[in-house]
Design a protein that fits this description.
single chain; 21 strands; about 15% strand
Length: about 675
C-alpha cells in the first residue's frame, strides 16, 4: 500500500472508529477499528459503490520449492503423457453385466441421447481433459491454512504439486500428481488425482465455483465447521462413485486402496433404463424374440428395457431413489462384499427395497429421541434430518417425495414435475431446462392444479393476491428449507406452514422465509386466523423480533445459511424490502462457517450499491471485519434514513438498537452443524 493509500485508510479508519463509538459507546472497539482498517484493507467508499480490497486466495505463476518429491510422475516425462497412458492409475470404464455405455444408444435414440448429453447428469464424472475442466488450471497457485498447492498443464495432463499428507508438519515434503477426473459441472467442479496406489484417487482440497468463477477451499463448499482440509484419499471409490457413475464395482483391495471400475462415468442412460445389451439384442434379433407357447400359439417377448415413464409411481420413483435418498445396503457384510465385486443388485424396474433400506426417522422410531451430535450412532440422523424426521439436505429428494401425502395418497412421482429429456415443444434454452430439468408446466402452479381444483385453490385459500409469490403453491408447500450446494433449495416434503411444528424441529417456516420483516408471532396469528392452526407459546424475542433476524443473529449454522440465502431471494426482497438487511447480513462475512460467508457475500451483492463487493472470505479476519464496518457506514449514510423504524427490525427511537443486536449475537447457537449433502 503506498503512502497516499495509507493516509486514506487511516482517515477512513478514524471515521469508522468515531462512528462505532457513537453507536456502541465503546472506546476499545472505536480505537481498534482504525488499526484493523490500515492493517487489513484500504476501504474507499464512493457515493453509491463500495469496492473493498481483497487479498486473493489465488496467485498466478508461483515459484515453488525445487526439491518437490514426485510420485506418479517419476516414471515418465510428463510432457508426453496423456490421461490414456495413466489409465492404470485411475478408475476406469469397463462395461459389464449387460451394460454397454450410452454411445450404443445413439443409433436408434439420437434425440434422447442429445438431451441426455446436455444434462448435468451426463457430466457428473468426467476425465479431467482440457475441454472438460472449468477451473483455471493452466498455471495457478492456491494457498490455504498455511499450505501451497500449484497446478499446471503439460500437454493434455494437469499436474498438482501438493503437500504430502504423510508428513503434515514438514512443508518440504511434497508430491507431484496428475489430475485424472472431475466431479460436477453445474454449480461447482472438484478434481481427483491419482495416488499411484492401484486405482485409488485423492481429492484436490479446492473447488471451482461456476457461479463466480473462483476457487474456494473444499470445506467452504459444504456446511461444516472450519476444519483442516483433507485430500480424502479413497473417497471416490468408497462413496462418490456409488451415485456419480453407472454400475460401479469398487473392489476394495485394502482399507485404503480401491480398484474402481464402472460401466460408465456419470449418470448414463443405463442408470435410469437398465442394462442396454438385452434391449439391443431384442431389437436386432427380433425373430428370436418369437417363442412358441404350450398351446402352439406364438407371442413376442417383452422388450427388457426399463422406462420410468411407463412404471407405476413406486417403481418409477425408485429409479431416482437409488441415488436421491438416504439409504443403506441390506444384506450385512455379504451385501457389502457383493457390492464391491459386482455392484448393487438393483436394476431400474426392480424393487429397490430388495437391496436397499431407505432410512427415516419415523414417529414410532426411537431414533428420533437420540438426536445427539456427539453420538456416532445418531450421526446420520443429525446430519440429514430435522428433528421431526423431515429430510434437510439436497440430493435426498426421494425421502421427501415418499413422505408426502401427494405420493402416499395420490399418484405423484418424480417425473410428475421433472423431465429427464427436454421436449421438442419446450422452447427454453437448453441450459435453462438443464438447471432443474423441470417440465414447463412445473414452472407455475399447473402441476398442482392437475389434481387440486382451481375452484378450491384461489385467493380465498392463499390469502395472497393472484399471481403474487405468496399465491404460489411451491412457496408455501415446498419452501426453501433444504440446504445444499451453497444455497437453499425447495423441500420435497410437501407440507403446510405450522409455526409450532417448525419451531420444534428447528426449521425456518415458509411464511417468514418470504416475510423476512415479520415475527413468528405474526405468522402464528395469521395461520390461526386463516386456517385455524393453533399457535404455540412463543418467547419474548419470538413475539417481538423478526424471525429472520433471530435466525441470522442467534440461530444455528443451518438456520443462518438458509436465511442468509433468503435475504438475497428476489421474491423475499420484493415482499420485505431491501433497505434494512445490509448491517445484519454483513455480520455473516466473519461467520465461523466458511460456506455461510460465501452465501452472505452473494446476498450482499444483490443489494443496491454492493454489486461490486469484494472481500476475501478465507484470509485473515482483519479485512473481513473492516468490510463489515465499512458496509455499516455505507448503509448508515445511504439507506438508514429510508428504513421504516420498526421495532421488530431492531430499531429504537435513536436508530438501530445495537445493544439488542449485540445481545442476540452473544446468544448465538454455536453447537456444531455438519450437513451430509
Amino acid at each position: 500500500m503506498n503512502t497516499t493509500a495509507i493516509i486514506i485508510a487511516g482517515i477512513s479508519g478514524i471515521a469508522l472508529g468515531l462512528l462505532a463509538y457513537r453507536i456502541l459507546r465503546n472506546w476499545s472497539i472505536a480505537i481498534a477499528i482504525p488499526l484493523l482498517v490500515v492493517a487489513g484493507a484500504a476501504v474507499l467508499i464512493p457515493e453509491k459503490k463500495l469496492p473493498l480490497e481483497t487479498s486473493p486466495t489465488v496467485a498466478v505463476d508461483p515459484n515453488l520449492p525445487d526439491d518437490s518429491g514426485k510420485s506418479v510422475a517419476d516414471s515418465a516425462e510428463t510432457s508426453i503423457m496423456t490421461l490414456a497412458s495413466l489409465q492404470h492409475t485411475r478408475p476406469v470404464e469397463v462395461p459389464k453385466d449387460g451394460y454397454v455405455g450410452s454411445d450404443a444408444c445413439i443409433e436408434c435414440h439420437q434425440d434422447n441421447h442429445t438431451t441426455w448429453a446436455e444434462s448435468y447428469h451426463s457430466t457428473m464424472t468426467q476425465l479431467a481433459t482440457p475441454d472438460v475442466v472449468m477451473g483455471n488450471l493452466e498455471s495457478v497457485r492456491l494457498s490455504f491454512q498455511g499450505h501451497d498447492y500449484e497446478i499446471h498443464r503439460e500437454g493434455d495432463v494437469f499436474w498438482a504439486d501438493l503437500p504430502d499428507e504423510k508428513f503434515p508438519d514438514v512443508k518440504s515434503k511434497r508430491k507431484v500428481v496428475p489430475l485424472v477426473m472431475s466431479t460436477g459441472s453445474h454449480h461447482m467442479q472438484l478434481y481427483w488425482w491419482a495416488t499411484g496406489d492401484d486405482r485409488t484417487t485423492g481429492l484436490l482440497p479446492f473447488v471451482w465455483v461456476a457461479e463466480t468463477g473462483e476457487w474456494i477451499p473444499r470445506n467452504a463448499s459444504f456446511l461444516q465447521p472450519n476444519v483442516a482440509v483433507s485430500q480424502e484419499i479413497g473417497r471416490w471409490g468408497q462413496t462418490c462413485s456409488m451415485c456419480h457413475s453407472t454400475h460401479r464395482r469398487v473392489r476394495s483391495t485394502t482399507s485404503d486402496t480401491w480398484d474402481t471400475k464402472v460401466a460408465e462415468f456419470g449418470i448414463s442412460c443405463e442408470a435410469c433404463h437398465g442394462p442396454g445389451q438385452p434391449h439391443i439384442d431384442h431389437h436386432r434379433q427380433l425373430a428370436l424374440a418369437v417363442t412358441n407357447t404350450s398351446d402352439g400359439t406364438s407371442e413376442i417377448k417383452q422388450d427388457p428395457i426399463a422406462n420410468p415413464e411407463s412404471m407405476d409411481k413406486v417403481r418409477s420413483a425408485q429409479v431416482c431413489g437409488q441415488c436421491h435418498s438416504v439409504v443403506e445396503l441390506t444384506g450385512g457384510k455379504e451385501g457389502i462384499e457383493h457390492l464391491n465385486m459386482h455392484g448393487h443388485g438393483f436394476r431400474p424396474g426392480g424393487d429397490f427395497a430388495a437391496s436397499h433400506k431407505v432410512l427415516r426417522i419415523d414417529e414410532h422410531d426411537a431414533t428420533r429421541e437420540i438426536m445427539d451430535p456427539n453420538n456416532p450412532a445418531a450421526a446420520k440422523f443429525n446430519t440429514t434430518f430435522y428433528k421431526d424426521g423431515m429430510v434437510r439436505v439436497s440430493g435426498r429428494e426421494y425421502n421427501g417425495l415418499t413422505d408426502s401425502a401427494c405420493y402416499k395418497k395420490g399418484e405423484m412421482t418424480c417425473i410428475t414435475c421433472h423431465q429427464l429429456h427436454q421436449s421438442s415443444l419446450d422452447d427454453r434454452p437448453v441450459k435453462e431446462w438443464a438447471n432443474d430439468q423441470l417440465k414447463p408446466e412445473a414452472l407455475n402452479d399447473q402441476i398442482c392444479l392437475d389434481c387440486h381444483s382451481e375452484d378450491q385453490y384461489n385467493t380465498s385459500h392463499t390469502h395472497h393476491a393472484a399471481g403474487s409469490s405468496g399465491s404460489s403453491c411451491y412457496n408455501c408447500h415446498m419452501p426453501h428449507t433444504t440446504y445444499g450446494l451453497l444455497k437453499a433449495i425447495r423441500s420435497h416434503t410437501i407440507t403446510s406452514p405450522n409455526v409450532a411444528k417448525d419451531v420444534a424441529a428447528g426449521r425456518p417456516n415458509a411464511c417468514n422465509l418470504c416475510h423476512l420483516d415479520k415475527t413468528l408471532q405474526w405468522t402464528a396469528d395469521s395461520l390461526k386466523k386463516w386456517y385455524q392452526i393453533e399457535p404455540p407459546e412463543l418467547d419474548k424475542d419470538q413475539r417481538e423480533i423478526a424471525a429472520s433476524l433471530l435466525w441470522i443473529l442467534k440461530g444455528d449454522a443451518a438456520q443462518r445459511a438458509l436465511v442468509a440465502w433468503s435475504m438475497g431471494w428476489p421474491a423475499a426482497q420484493a415482499v420485505s424490502g431491501t433497505n434494512w438487511q445490509m448491517p445484519f447480513i454483513s455480520q455473516l462475512l466473519d461467520d465461523p462457517y466458511l460456506a455461510i460467508r460465501f452465501i452472505a457475500r452473494r446476498s450482499l451483492r444483490s443489494l443496491e450499491g454492493l454489486d461490486d463487493l469484494k472481500v476475501n472470505m478465507f484470509g485473515p479476519p482483519e479485512a473481513r471485519q473492516a468490510a463489515i464496518a465499512a458496509i455499516a457506514q455505507f448503509w448508515y449514510e445511504t439507506q438508514e434514513s429510508s428504513v421504516s423504524k420498526q421495532s421488530e427490525l431492531l430499531f429504537g427511537k435513536d436508530g438501530l438498537d445495537f445493544e439488542r443486536v449485540q445481545r442476540l449475537l452473544r446468544e448465538c447457537d454455536n453447537s456444531p452443524v455438519v450437513l451430509d449433502e
